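Task: fold both queries, return tokens.
Query 1:
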Amino acid sequence: MRIVLTDRRCLEIQNNNKLEKSGKGEIRLRVLYCAICRTDAKMWDQGHRDLILPRVPGHEMAVADNRGNRYVIWPGISCGTCVHCRAGRENRCEHLQILGFHRDGGFADEIIAPAHSLIPVPETLDPAISCFAEPMGCIFHALANFPVKKNPRFLIYGGGTMGLLAGLVIQAAGGKPMIIEKNKEKIQAAHPFLKATTIACATHTRESGFDAVINACPDIQAFADGLKKLRKGGHFLFFSGLTKNATIETDLIDLIHYHEITISGSYGLAPADMQRAVSFLDAHQRIPATLIQGIAAPENAPDLLPQVLAGKGFKYILDFTGSLSREYAGQNHQGTSQGPILETK
């Protein structure tokens, strides 16, 4: 079967998986699990600049070959010859295509992908949890050239899946992350993760002088507040695009000049970042498991996309193996956790 986006808010569940014709160096793979990313939900709702319809969405997937070897897939298809590809910056490829955008993705029981995009998954890593390799790889990409230990105080705006994963990676690297999430219910839902990591999460903070800020949400106010919270000479990791056509006061932009703030953009990930993410997940998989809101049959995708779009829950994963017997720490926790909500610190 496959799930096809034919137009905005139009999904078709098709029983026959008509695979695209494989090209040179490409391989047919069986999809085990595919997570629903908020980008998938936004594409379903609004479209996307890179989306070509009709399309099978999905780019956070765990797959297996005909020998049973398991992989995650770097979702980019790069040319391999441009200046960016030769420098190991395949995410900047001049001719980049993306699975789930330009080519059919993982909302199907089979997929065609380049063999060189396959990253082996160790037997010790739960295949469902390996779906976090793509979003976590994006975090590693953003932090690739940033000395966390020398700049330990991080302020992260956005307590969704990406913001929480960023906190986990920063903490493991020796940093001291704090997460700002204005939605109290989301903080409550994240209680299993926050309890396991002891990462501070609040609706706002009076603290300032942070070494680095990451915006893991599109809120223009978070971007503005982040500039004010940085120390002089601080670093702003511009991770999430901002809400379209929003405005910001130029006085705040001037802080970049007066405080000598460095802003670094980050887009997507390269294969090497995803490889690091797989190794990290293998060592820390108990904690990302707390963010699995539910594992669902593929037929439930049309009902789950609106929830993901609305920011309800963290990570929903579609199960193409036909087995739905396992539970994870984060399942059914949304709105039920009894942990404290920290409003200020």
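Query 1 returned. Query 2:
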Amino acid sequence: GLNSPFARIADVSIDTVDRVIHNRGQVSKKTMKKILDVMDKTNYKPNFVARVLASKKKPRLVCLIPFHTPENMYWEAPLEGIIKAEKEIADYGVTVSYSLFDQYLPGSFEKKTRDVLSDHPDGVLLAPFFSKQASDFVKKLDILKIPYVFIDSKLKEANNLSFFGQNSFRSGMLAAKLMKFSCSPKGTIVIVNIGTEYEDIHHTREREEGFKTYFINNTPDIPLHVLNISSEDINNMDSLLEIPDTDISGIFATSSAHIIAKYLNNKGKGQITLIGYDLTNDNITFLEKGIIDFLICQKPREQAFRGIYALFHHIVFEKQIRKNNLMPLDILTRENFNDYLEFELNN
């Protein structure tokens, strides 16, 4: 039951907690003080606990995130964060289910939103990948009064309970500053967007805009070239990256940097500065080889872990939840990624 961990913290029986909450039966002053102290420290609300005890209701959370693929392993990390949180709150009777979609197919996302709505959960954790479809979905959640938390990116006009993720625009500016310091001042810088046949994958667009803004404001004379590669064109990198009359000095990959790195490695073009995102296994391989120079990371496990806890605290304990929670923008290189990864996996 929901009060069993609480009873364990106070080191008393569940029946004793029940007697204090409902003010019935004999409980010693010492035991009552112990229970009330724990209620105070854990922000328990006796009237709410009583309702939960009476209803035997078990809150159900649903996670609507992309499934990870060999081409993009990023979403394995948030899944690990969710599973960790799920294990920690299981004693409170909270259950977590998964509705995973294809991050390149709006239709896949839309189908999963219908499944979630028909399930009518108590809370939703989601990555709002496709702006239009995600906006339609959260409006329906608003009508049903189902709280929801965004991770990875957010919709600008939404009534989300909370958001855990990076400021995509500022991360693009950070990448541009790294590029300016590390690549040859002579030559073109290419911004590569992969899998962007759908224009409303907005966080990669915000990264691009932040990157361009930095260069326009600071070094407007350096030429920038934007290259949009659809998921079907990934194997045709030769023709795409052979830009006429251009000497490429740096590449900024708004996602899936390992795909560009593999191409550069095969062509012996490792001297081109390459900056990307996220500490996936594929990216680590090329970071170690020196093909990827910098990775900007955003604590994806922690985003998902804290997102689940936000829903849990809101639904079970009726706590006030902070709306915007921006992750630090971590800069990783061949020299420091091992310590970072070890810390991430063990905390």
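Both queries returned. Flag for query 2: The radius of gyration is 24 Å.
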